[in-house]
């Protein structure tokens, strides 16, 4: 019954897997593995910041799947909807999807069936309740025919309240590539907040007229695969906290920078204390933009 639904801060839906990295710090290669998949990592990142999170995904019916299930649970993520691919499952829990304060979905789920229909069904069931974040997350290798992607992305964007992605992803979703034009097209499609990622930072535009270009937070170290997911988890935390755009994006930048500065095989998702400490040690930039 709807009355018994648990209200999560964040429910993410999408890929999960095991990432294998070449060791950089003398760690034996058998240990150079970690939780993979954007949806899973975003949920872990948000849980690390004290948010109640759950993931909707499927695993293999094998020891790898069991390991992923256990890793999520140990990371503070509710894994009740993480099921083996060979098992029979009930329909999506639409009550839980609507009750979550944030639903996080990635564009990768649109790349083929049956995940495409499931992703769009979840977005439609969600409606305009709460905050729905669509990480455009363009990976052409996931598509049998990348030219089929634009209409599916456009349909998904219509159900989102927040859309984010790099220029390649934004171009697939909107048909334009210039950053400001991308953001304006996303707003015109119905989102409340558009975040366009660029090498020099993030262009953020809100429907209320607020806009800013927020540069990245510098941190030593190489880029890490999970840095963008740390950004996403921190973004969810900031959205739930009601922060204004510049603070929101700067906080997310710092989370990503911390992950990028760490060995890839370490449990990298940062705590709130670690993020705040980095921000306190980093000079405050002068973002360009206007506030309504």
Automatic annotation (TrEMBL):
Entry annotated with the keyword Kinase: yes
What species is given as this protein's source? Streptomyces lincolnensis
Q: Where is the Carbohydrate kinase PfkB domain?
A: 11-89, 96-271
Q: Which UniProt keywords apply?
A: Kinase, Transferase
By sequence similarity, the record places it as follows: Belongs to the carbohydrate kinase PfkB family.
State what protein this is by name: IolC protein
Molecular function as annotated in GO: kinase activity
UniProt keyword annotation of Manganese present = no
Secretion signal span: none
């Amino acid at each position: 019954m709807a009355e018994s639904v648990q209200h999560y801060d964040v429910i993410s839906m999408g890929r999960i897997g095991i990432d294998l990295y070449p060791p950089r710090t003398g760690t034996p290669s058998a240990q150079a593995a970690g939780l993979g998949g954007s949806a899973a990592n975003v949920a872990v990142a948000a849980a690390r910041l004290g948010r109640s999170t759950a993931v909707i995904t499927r695993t293999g019916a094998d020891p790898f799947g069991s390991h992923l299930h256990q890793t999520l649970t140990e990371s503070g993520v509710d894994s009740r909807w993480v099921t083996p691919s060979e098992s029979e499952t009930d329909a999506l829990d639409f009550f839980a999807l609507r009750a979550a304060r944030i639903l996080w979905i990635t564009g990768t789920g649109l790349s083929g069936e049956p995940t495409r229909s499931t992703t769009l069904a979840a977005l439609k069931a969600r409606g305009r309740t709460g905050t729905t974040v669509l990480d455009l997350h363009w990976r052409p290798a996931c598509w049998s025919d990348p030219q089929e992607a634009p209409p599916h992305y456009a349909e998904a964007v219509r159900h989102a309240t927040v859309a984010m992605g790099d220029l390649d992803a934004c171009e697939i979703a909107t048909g334009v590539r210039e950053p400001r034009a991308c953001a304006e097209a996303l707003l015109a499609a119905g989102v409340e907040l558009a975040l366009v990622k660029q090498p020099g930072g993030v262009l953020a535009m809100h429907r209320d007229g607020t806009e800013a270009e927020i540069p990245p937070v510098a941190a030593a170290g190489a880029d890490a695969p999970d840095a963008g997911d740390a950004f996403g988890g921190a973004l969810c935390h900031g959205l739930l906290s009601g922060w204004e755009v510049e603070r929101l994006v700067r906080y997310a930048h710092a989370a990503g920078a911390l992950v990028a500065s760490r060995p890839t095989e370490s449990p990298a998702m940062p705590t709130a204390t670690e993020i705040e400490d980095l921000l306190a040690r980093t000079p405050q930039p002068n973002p360009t933009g206007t506030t309504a």
